[in-house]
Amino acid sequence: MPTTPPADRNAERGSEALSFPTDFVWGAATASYQIEGAVDEGGRSASIWDTFSHTPGMVVDGDTGDVACDHYHRYREDVALLADLGVSHYRFSLAWPRLQPEGRGALNEAGLDFYVRLVEALLERDITPWVTLYHWDLPQVLEDAGGWPARETAQRFADYSAAVHARLHDRVHAWTTLNEPWVAAFLGYAAGEHAPGVRDPAQALRAAHHLLLGHGLALEAMRAQDPGTSTFGITLNFSPVRSATEDEADVEAARRIDALQNRLFLDPLLRGRYAEDLLEDVADVTDGAHVQEGDLERIAQPLDFLGVNYYFPWTVRAGGRATAPSPWVGSEDVEFVDRGLPTTAMGWEIEPDGLRETLTRLSDEYAAPPLYVTENGAAFDEAPGPDGVVQDANRIAYLDGHFRAAHAARERGADVRGYFVWSLLDNFEWAFGFSRRFGLVHVDYPTQRRTPKASAGWYAQVTRRNGLPAA
Ligand code: IFM
Questions:
Q1: Which residue of 111, 379, 386, 399 has the fewest C-beta atoms within 10 A of its own C-beta?
Q2: Do the domain assignments include residue 50?
Q3: Phi, psi dihedral angles at 89 (to 5 degrees)
Q4: Which atom of ligand 1 is nearest to the CA of 309?
Q5: Rg of the chain over CA atoms, in angstroms?
Q6: Contacts of 463 (CB under 8 A, 6+ apart)
Q7: Bridge-partner residues for 235, per DSSP?
Q8: Which of 180, 349, 357, 382 is catalytic?
Q9: Is 3 contained in some domain?
Q10: What is the pLDDT of residues 151-210, one digit of tens each?
């Protein structure tokens, strides 16, 4: 585990002008439940996030996604905002309960129609749609049938994916199966901080495996019917894990957290196996009987790209008190160390070099397929000033530093082909409700008024010059 002091790791953040290759993808990202609203319209059924957010005490201020950014009705305005940013790509997710309200069977035409209209509006502005099939809004009816801990849900996901792909592949060519299965499995089924709010470590490990299996089955089904025009991938959330000291026990703690956070997904996807050390770490939690013959081959099918979501690194040490509920299944006693670095409004450390480290590791250790940073961005609390302008210098500095880190990774040989800023709009930040604002565009929720922040103007310059000015 690297133990270089943080100051040195950030030292290479230069301030010179940088440029990216001409075909580099600049984009912005959102997700269905966080922006769409219209939860009862067009035949949509309830998702686990509708149930969870309506359960008292689960989301800050009792916020829900019932209206969110009302994107379902205002998507044309939002596509115009994307065009103003000068982005060539828009990453968004499809709401499974809108497309297949019963979690199985024929697609709901009204739900499909919404996404067809959105895709058409994007294509009219020369913006390429980059679709994610699952960003955490499982139909509640499938959770009632066992959710991701049930093997059957993987097959349901593959059927849904194939049905949607069959109807949209003529216009959509970039398909991501899952967004951040770590969050869905471990915050959803172990820590209970996310929907469906379950606190059962063994169920979380089953969920993680079935998410991966669903990815594999969906890839297989979509590829079998694709005319050769699509690319297929998955998005994972990565955090490099550092040990607080070089003591053996702390280094071991960092190994355990790296295994759970990063390798639990990377190894099956890119090496066709779970790592032995991880299996030993969780041996008291599961006997692994849910992993059936043939699963790993299915999961390890070739990827056309790997989506990388990066926000912050972890620093850990051994010997804390076991906390429950915890997402760190089998390693609940590892202690997370606050290094006193500047943080965003999420309390997440700002360390751009963690992105360079992540991209370089994927390239060097995993011989990963082409990489796209599918999410990176920051929550800060700036509000519009008296002149109506949102001066978010913190966000600009954050993005500038991380773009430079991605550039540095490219220089060191990582095949990084694009970058999607999280997020286009302020939106429903899961258990934090509307209290955290990640948007390039400010949203005044009572009026739904959109106001591009200073960072939006700055990002529009980056996309148009295809690079960064000297800072
Ligand atoms: O808002 C989320 C997004 O849905 C998934 N990745 C992290 C973002 C910030 O927490």
A1: 386
A2: yes
A3: -135, 150
A4: 6
A5: 21
A6: 26, 85, 86, 87, 88
A7: 179, 307
A8: 180
A9: no
A10: 999 999 999 999 999 999 999 999 999 999 999 999 999 999 999 999 999 999 999 999
Dihedral over alpha carbons 453, 459, 464, 469 (to 10 degrees): 120
- Residue 146 has, within 13 A of its CA and on its CB side, a CA count of 11
319-368: pLDDT as tens digits: 888 888 999 999 999 999 999 999 999 999 999 999 999 999 999 999 99
382 is catalytic: no
The total number of structural domains in the chain stands at 1
Q: Tell me how crowded residue 449 is: count the other CB atoms within 10 A of its CB.
A: 11
Over 50: is that where the pLDDT of 287 sits? yes
With respect to residue 274, please indicate whether it lies within any of the assigned structural domains: yes
Which of 375, 423, 432 has the most ligand 1 atoms within 8 A of CB, as the residue to mutate? Answer: 375
Residue 429 Cα to ligand 1 middle (Å): 7
For residue 179, give the ligand 1 atom closest to its CA.
5
- Spatial distance between the Cα atoms of 292 and 277, rounded to a whole number of angstroms: 19
CB-ligand 1 contact for 205 (6 Å cutoff): no
> What CA–CA distance (Å, rounded) separates 146 from 20?
46
- Does the active-site annotation cover 375? yes
| Domain CATH for 339 | 3.20.20.80
Average of per-residue pLDDT across 412-441: 98
Atom 10 in ligand 1: residue holding the nearest Cα: 429
Domain extent for 362: 13-468
Q: Residue 324: what pLDDT? A: 86
* 7 assigned to some structural domain: no
Residue 10 confidence (pLDDT) above 90: no
